[in-house]
Design a protein that fits this description.
homodimer; 342 residues; alpha/beta; 434 Repressor (Amino-terminal Domain); Rossmann fold; 6-stranded parallel sheet; 14 helices; 46% helix; 16% strand; DNA-binding
DNA sequence: GGTCTGTGCGGGAGCGCTCTCACAGTGGCA
DNA sequence: TGCCACTGTGAGAGCGCTCCCGCACAGACC
């Protein structure tokens, strides 16, 4: 079979070496910035590279170095709505910016279902990436196990469900939620509801726990009918708010476990004729950009994303470099941002 | 230097071959589903693979096959807001679903600025991917040229600015916009404004052209003061609407070049005390999920995303397989979806 | 019995790179 | 002058895989 390919065969190290009149080893040294090369040889190699438009073949290099200089950020999310959550965009942007100055590449991988998670697991195990940052993990996801079993460097954004020894970076969800509800209590509200995140996600669970802890600490009762589960989307938040209102029309405050859901809740409250904050006070969680510009501006819990994203990459790189060191984790402080809604 | 790595060395083809009592070649045949293997040998290899938990090293394979079985979807977008546009989520989800049944992997690459585009260009040229789908191209982006020059199989989502020979899939933006404004004319509106997309993007340019064409076809004048440039975001849409209202308080209709912007425009109109559609009729573009649930439900132009995403991958795969064939392109029809806003 | 086709399998080269090692050349120092 | 470091360089092995080629053997056919 003759090769009728019209795609230009890319030049190899050898061709560069021949053109520059040096050995392959020297070209390799120049490409990898080794100091032990004479200025003349370096110049000759550089001009040969330019002339041939040489680009190193990463597959060949990776085969010997066992490194791809690529890390994966996995968005593990069946719900398309959530995919456009500003929280994700911020993390992606932050990690990407952190890596911009390095020669590391970032690839995003998305999984809608378990099958796609398996596929991503295979992709990682086949050696395409040096490490993985895992976002939006649900309780039954197989991916953390697949990756951990394969010995793949891994950092989770959000702590794992069980107390496994995996590195993670998380916001203090429990503390933040506690502060939110404590604020609602301190400002004199008596019937405080909550719209939780999905309870198969640790952020959902922890924020609910914080809310309950604040109630308990203040000597209040925890009322199950004042808790509605949302899904971190605006639509889900609106739906949960309607359901809470139906169950207890007298409620006078609500802690909503994410800003997109809070926007939905605000909409539902307006539709139900409630004024915010006069009739019902609302506190969100995230301090997303939307929080400042919704009506009324949303009191919310700020997640320290500017701390979290560099940490995420730092912990991962440390694992990739210092193989065998124990995985480290970090929890970042949250803070209450007071605006008009509560 | 002794290797103190604790990461388990992954087993190789050779080890599988030894354990199964066959040659490397036979293991390779089994792994690649070649029919010329006896059932006994196949079974032996399979059990050896299972026992060793063997995963083929893709770098080694790619080195010889010149294939990575990975394609990249590049989101080329400086504006983080736009990153959470539902349109992107739909494309990503669609392409991902199309590839789910194949053994092709999909990676998402994002570029916020030109430097990151260069980095992506390098990533692609180094041989990490077999082909690229490029989204959200702005007029000065260097990436299309970098990729095309490197002979990388490429399909653009949205036609290119110049009439270069690059494959693309696009919606009929001009026709859709024309239909939108024609609808506004037909329903008796006289002062029809438009909020355009970014005019450094072809979708922005084409939709504006369609709007103007509809006005001209109806014998109307094109008024520059009734055109405001948005950025495809909700915030940008609201801002553009305010500016239009300030310039011409009497306007009675507006064609908004994307649904997120239309949501912003709706908000601005409400804030300005205008009723929709009684005072001002609004038509959007996209038929995003949000269009059906905003208040009032949005009349909009549907993009045939379910046609477009399979086409995107199909055209790319055809380029990857049939090297040297001329690049093919497609334009998909749009349709008016009538709801309450116009 | 001899030749031929077909099937299953293994040997071995080679994909493009890195990296160890050896070697020639230079200069410093006793 | 002799010895030792040190520096720049090249030869060559080898990373894990695929794939071409050739061999052994089985069965079909003259």
């Amino acid at each position: 079979m003759t090769d009728i390919s019209t795609r230009p065969a890319s030049p190899t190290l050898d061709e560069v070496a021949v053109l520059a009149g040096v050995s392959r080893a020297t070209v390799s040294r120049v490409v990898n910035d080794s100091p032990r090369v004479s200025p003349e040889a370096r110049a000759a190699v550089h001009s040969a590279i330019a002339e041939l438009r040489y680009v190193p073949n990463r597959m060949a290099r990776s085969l010997v170095t066992r490194r791809t200089d690529t890390i994966a950020l996995v968005l593990n999310e069946p719900n398309t709505q959530v995919f456009s959550d500003p929280f994700f965009a911020s993390i992606v942007r932050g990690v990407s910016a952190t890596l911009a100055d390095t020669d590391l590449n970032l690839v995003l991988l998305t999984a809608q279902d378990e099958r796609e998670q398996q596929k991503i697991g295979r992709y990682a195990r086949q050696g395409h990436v040096d490490g993985v940052i895992l976002m939006s993990v649900h309780s039954n996801d197989p991916l953390p196990d697949i990756l951990a079993d394969a010995g793949m460097p891994l950092v989770m954004c959000g702590r794992p469900f069980d107390d496994r020894a995996v590195a993670y970076v998380d916001a203090d969800n429990r503390g933040g939620a506690e502060a939110a509800t404590a604020h609602l209590i301190a400002t004199g509200h008596s019937r405080i509801a909550t719209i939780t995140g999905p309870l198969d996600m640790i952020a959902g669970v922890d924020r609910l726990a914080g809310h309950r802890a604040a109630l308990t600490a203040a000597g209040r009762q925890v009322h199950p009918e004042l808790e509605a589960e949302g899904d971190f989307t605006e639509v889900g938040g609106a739906r949960a708010m309607e359901s809470l209102l139906a169950r207890d029309p007298e409620l006078d405050a609500v802690f909503v476990a994410s800003d997109p859901m809070a926007v939905g809740a605000l909409r539902a409250l307006r539709a139900a004729g409630r004024r915010v904050p006069e009739d019902v006070a609302v506190v969100g969680f995230d301090d997303a950009a939307v929080a400042a510009r919704c009506d009324p501006p949303l009191t919310t819990i700020a997640q320290p994303l500017t701390d979290m994203t560099p940490l995420l990459t730092e912990l991962l790189l440390r694992q990739i470099e210092g193989v065998g060191e124990p995985a480290e984790s970090r929890v970042c402080h949250t803070s209450l941002v007071r605006r008009a809604s509560a």
